[in-house]
Amino acid sequence: MVDFSLWDILRNLLLAARWTVLLSLVAFVGGGVVGLALLVLREAGGVRGRGNLAARAVAVYVELFQGTPLLMQLFLAYFGLALLGLPISAWSAAAVALTLYASAYLTEIWHGCVRAVPRGQWEAGQSLALSFGEQMRHVILPQAVRIAIAPTVGFLVQVIKGTALASVIGFIELTKAGTMIANATFQPMLVYGCVALMYFVLCFPVSLWARMLERKLHAAH
Amino acid sequence: MRIELDFAAVLSQWPLLAKGAALTLVLTAISAVLGLLLGVACAWARTRGPAWLKWLAASYVELVRNTPFIVQLYFVFFGLPALGVKLTPDLASVIAMVVNLGAYSSEIVRAGIEATPRGQIEAAQSLALTNRQVFTRVVLPPALAKVWPATVSQIIIVMLGSAVCGQISTEELSYAANLIQSRNFRAFEAYIVATAIYLLMAIAVRRALNWAGPRWLFGGRPTGGRHG
Q: Which of B72, B82, B187 lies at the smallest CB-CB distance from A79?
């Protein structure tokens, strides 16, 4: 039997934590891109009132992701990719599921921020004969982005914590590494304590940053 | 390429799914009640308590909010037995869910408490109510009513999060789906059905709590941010 020192445990957890960070970044950036596309689709439908079909479809998309467990979404991505004949790996399934999950939450957060910009701003843009794209780019988004920064940073914490579920489909990140090391060392209390501590070290500064941004925004008003 | 889905093979196992869904609801109900009580206690500690208690409650809240639920669950189920506390999967799940909801709901309730107008507290004090009466009769009920929608959302997040409890062999809904797919190899269908049940439960629980809250919990006070 191999003996694990505390340093061995920490070193292996730290190595695995790189994958937690990478998966978080992929999901957050990917989710941001998809979420932004959905946002444009939703607001374009909402403003011009042509059917609102797109807006409603995005709302259903959001409801589906917010009303079901992330764990189920991961399983569905894992077995769904296999069903489509794509090569399955825990990494690709986790990246796909977490990206879609993040996109639903981010588009909803940003939708609220766009809605928070007074209607008169849209109308002023329209009366200047700006197109929808121009209104969005020059009038609405600059104001909405200011409101959106704090909750968006706050959501990053959710994404980091969400990546822990990728361990269940076998992706070796911080939590999965913790499980493996706990099984090898028979010291679950110590190992899971260290795992929790590492998540805390990752998430707490981001939480503080989000809170600081929020205070700054309120102070400006 | 043809994709063949066979939902009948999954749906024929409905007793398993029903039992799993029932346990998910029971776990959620127990943790909602205990978690809210813990949340209110922590909110009290952070707004009215002595300095050391404030610090303790704040540390607890930050620690839980900045770590994943699955790690909290593993810590309780696999870690605590090292201290001689042997837990069944169900009990470990409830403890993890209560601890988790307690931290989040304490932040929600605290926001409601801090929104109480100063004048209301002074009015209550001038009527010679004790500090405890002021908190339980004057501050807390409207604060809870105000933040009820956010609290309901958090309870639903905890319910959906409880899908992870299947990983420590708590026989809730996701565990049932896992069991079914291990029997008939219809993994995608089994998880689709389970996911749909989760979605329906989330919608139903939200409706039920939004309906019940103002009627039974706050004596007819409207919920949400409209008043106060």
A: B187
B172 within a domain of the structure (yes/no): yes
Examine residue B2 and state whether it is found in any structural domain, yes or no. Answer: no
Whether residue B150 lies inside any domain: the answer is yes
- The answer as to whether B122 is a domain residue is yes
Q: What is the DSSP string of B175-217?
A: HHHHHHHHHH--HHHHHHHHHHHHHHHHHHHHHHHHHHIIIII
Domains recognised in chain A with CATH numbers: 6-220 (1.10.3720.10)
- Asked casually if ipTM beats, i.e. exceeds, 0.85, the reply is yes
On chain A, the residues whose CB falls within 8 A of the CB of B63 are 196, 200
Instruction: Report how far residue A201's alpha carbon sits from residue A159's, in angstroms, rounded to the nearest whole number.
Output: 15
Q: What is the pLDDT of residues B43-99, one digit of tens each?
A: 999 998 899 999 999 999 999 999 999 999 999 999 998 888 889 999 999 999 999
Which tokens in the block code for residue A34?
A: 């998809």
Q: How many domains does chain B have?
A: 1
Q: Write the pLDDT tens digit of every residue in A175-193.
A: 999 999 999 998 999 999 9
Chain A residue nearest residue B156, CA to CA: A67
What CA–CA distances, in Å, run from A201 to A79, B63, B156?
33, 10, 27
Are A204 and B80 an interchain contact pair (Cβ–Cβ within 8 Å)? no
Q: Report the largest interatomic distance among the alpha carbons of chain B, rounded to a whole angstrom.
A: 78
A49: left (phi over 0), alpha (psi -120 to 50) or beta: left
